């Protein structure tokens, strides 16, 4: 029951979040996000690929037991591909890359990103986007190997993902044993960033 309502485990096959999350890690997500707990900048989220970022894939055959596990929330639905990225921009935020220092700016405030994979720059692609309402701008920590919001700016939402796609916030690596650790949201990185324009308008 706890797994059904509160947490969910996901297998991570790719290196787009290195070195925070490594290929073949299993992460635990809180399903209280975003319905009960709001998403913040710096959160790592798992979300459905409704924008088809991963392309078409073959639907697996499922037996009654696998279907029961999916229905109960004990395993993800393989018919819905999932991705994992870090939230950089909230609704109303303007995210820009890059300034004269080579850093990303959020609402005009540059951010120093200690979670990036060593030797990786914040972004080689230049962009400036204002995040629409109920959407998020997301990026992988391994920026040179992450087809994230930057790679999908021609899609509806300018590369952002809808709030309704978010399945939960990654809170820990739970396997393999040598990798077990809590995941930080690096909230201090964004502590000086002011609220986005639309957020201010709603206050």
Automatic annotation (TrEMBL):
GO terms for molecular function: serine-type endopeptidase activity; signal peptidase activity. It is a single-pass type II membrane protein. Signal peptide: none annotated. Its main location: membrane. GO terms for biological process: signal peptide processing. GO terms for cellular component: plasma membrane. The keyword DNA-binding does not apply. It is an enzyme of class 3 (hydrolase). SUPFAM superfamilies: LexA/Signal peptidase (SSF51306). It is found in: Cell membrane; Membrane. This is Signal peptidase I. The lineage of its organism: Bacteria, Bacillati, Actinomycetota, Actinomycetes, Actinomycetales.
């Amino acid at each position: 029951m706890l797994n059904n309502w509160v947490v969910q485990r996901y297998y991570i096959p790719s290196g787009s979040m290195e070195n925070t999350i490594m290929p073949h890690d299993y992460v635990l997500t809180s399903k209280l996000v975003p319905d009960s707990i709001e998403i913040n900048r710096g959160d790592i989220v798992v979300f459905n690929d409704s924008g088809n970022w991963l392309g078409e894939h073959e639907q697996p055959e499922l037996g009654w037991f696998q279907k029961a596990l999916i229905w109960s929330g004990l395993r993800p639905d393989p018919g819905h591909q999932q991705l994992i990225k870090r939230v950089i921009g909230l609704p109303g935020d303007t995210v820009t890359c890059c300034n004269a220092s080579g850093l990303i700016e959020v609402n005009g405030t540059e951010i120093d990103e200690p979670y990036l994979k060593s030797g990786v720059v914040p972004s080689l692609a230049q962009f400036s986007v204002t995040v629409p309402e109920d959407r998020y701008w997301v990026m992988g920590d391994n920026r040179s190997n992450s087809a994230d919001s930057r790679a999908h700016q021609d899609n509806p939402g300018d590369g952002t993902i809808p709030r309704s796609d978010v399945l939960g916030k990654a809170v820990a690596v739970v396997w393999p044993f040598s990798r077990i650790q809590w995941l930080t949201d690096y909230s201090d990185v964004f502590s000086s960033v002011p609220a986005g324009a639309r957020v201010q308008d709603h206050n």
